[in-house]
C-alpha cells in the first residue's frame, strides 16, 4: 500500500504541447498534478488518443514538459532518470539472442558482466521459464515472450516501472495469467508502477489507485483508490461484488470522456 514517504514521481501542472503536422500547436496533456509514492501501483485510463502515453513519456524523460514540473526521486526530469524501466505493447526482445541473453543484456551493457548471467538466470526462473534459457524468441508463445520482457526489465531492479498497454495484444486467458504474474513479482518489490491501459477491469484488478483522464487534451478528471485486499487473484477478484461496484462507479466517470472522444473523432472524420 502507498506509504507517506517522499513521492518517487511528482507532476505539478505538467503540460505537453506538440506541433501538429499542419503546424498548429496541439495540447496533448494539460496541467497534470499527481504524486506517486515508492512501491505504489497506479493505473491510468482514458479515451483513445487522450494523452496517456505522453504522460509516461514525460516521466521517462523521453519528452520534456512544455510547462510545469516533472520530478523523479526528488529531481527535475531532464533526461532519462536512473532506475526506470519501460514496457510497451510490443516487446523489445532481440531475435538473435536467447532468453537468457535477452534478460542479461541490459545488465551487461551497464558493465555488470560477471553478475549479469547469474541474475538473469534467477529472473528467468522467477518468471517461470526455467528450462527455456537457451530458446530464441521465435520459439516462444506470446505469453512466454511477455515473461521474458518482464524479466528483462525487472532484472535491472527499477525503482519505477512504466507500462504502456503491455498485455493488450495477448488473448484473454494469457492476459489474466500475466496480470497475476505481474502482481506476484511486483508485490513487496518497492517498485512504483504506472500502468496505462484501455481496460478498466485490468486497471482495477492491478492498481492501488486508478487515474481517469479526460478526452483530449488530457487532464486528470478523478483519482479512485482501490481498497481491494492483496494479494489478489485476478479471476476471483472480478466476480466479487465490491469489484463490480468499483467498476460501475469508475465507469460512470470514464464513460462520459469516452463519449466525448467518440463525438470528437466522428466530427473530425
Ligand atoms: N511526438 C508527437 N508529435 C506530435 N503529436 C504527438 C506526439 N506524440 C503524441 N502526439 C499527439 O498527442 C496526443 C496524445 O497521444 P498519446 O499517444 O499520448 O495518447 P494515448 O492516450 O496514449 O493514445 P492511445 O489510447 O491511442 O494509446 C495525440 O493526439 C497524438 O497524436
From TrEMBL:
Residues 9-240 form the ABC transporter domain. GO terms for molecular function: ATP binding; ATP hydrolysis activity. CDD domains: ABC_NrtD_SsuB_transporters (cd03293). It holds the Pfam family ABC_tran. It comes from the Bacteria. Keywords: ATP-binding, Nucleotide-binding, Transport. This is ABC transporter ATP-binding protein. It comes from Microlunatus elymi. The lineage of its organism: Bacteria, Bacillati, Actinomycetota, Actinomycetes, Propionibacteriales.
Amino acid at each position: 500500500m502507498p506509504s507517506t514517504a517522499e513521492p518517487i514521481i511528482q507532476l505539478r501542472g505538467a503540460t505537453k504541447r506538440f506541433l501538429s503536422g499542419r503546424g498548429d500547436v496541439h495540447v496533448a496533456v494539460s496541467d497534470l498534478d499527481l504524486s506517486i509514492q515508492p512501491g505504489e501501483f497506479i493505473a491510468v485510463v482514458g479515451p483513445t488518443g487522450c494523452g496517456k502515453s505522453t504522460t509516461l513519456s514525460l516521466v521517462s524523460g523521453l519528452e520534456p514538459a512544455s510547462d510545469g514540473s516533472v520530478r523523479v526521486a526528488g529531481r527535475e526530469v531532464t533526461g532519462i532518470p536512473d532506475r526506470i524501466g519501460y514496457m510497451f505493447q510490443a516487446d523489445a526482445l532481440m531475435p538473435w539472442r536467447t532468453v537468457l541473453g535477452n534478460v542479461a543484456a541490459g545488465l551487461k551493457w551497464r558493465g555488470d558482466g560477471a553478475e549479469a548471467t547469474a541474475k538473469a538466470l534467477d529472473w528467468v526462473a522467477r518468471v517461470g521459464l526455467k528450462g527455456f534459457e537457451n530458446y530464441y524468441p521465435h520459439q516462444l508463445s506470446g505469453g512466454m515472450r511477455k515473461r521474458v520482457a518482464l524479466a528483462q526489465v525487472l532484472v535491472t531492479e527499477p525503482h519505477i516501472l512504466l507500462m504502456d498497454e503491455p498485455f493488450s495484444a495477448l488473448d484473454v486467458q494469457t492476459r489474466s495469467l500475466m496480470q497475476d504474474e505481474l502482481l506476484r513479482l511486483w508485490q513487496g518489490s518497492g517498485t512504483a508502477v504506472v500502468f496505462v491501459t484501455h481496460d478498466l477491469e485490468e486497471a482495477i484488478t492491478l492498481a492501488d489507485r486508478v487515474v481517469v483522464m479526460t478526452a483530449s487534451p488530457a487532464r486528470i478528471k478523478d483519482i479512485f483508490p482501490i481498497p481491494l485486499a492483496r494479494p489478489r487473484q485476478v479471476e476471483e477478484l472480478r466476480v466479487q461484488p465490491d469489484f463490480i461496484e468499483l467498476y460501475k462507479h469508475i465507469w460512470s466517470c470514464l464513460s462520459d470522456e469516452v463519449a466525448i472522444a467518440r463525438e470528437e473523432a466522428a466530427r473530425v472524420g
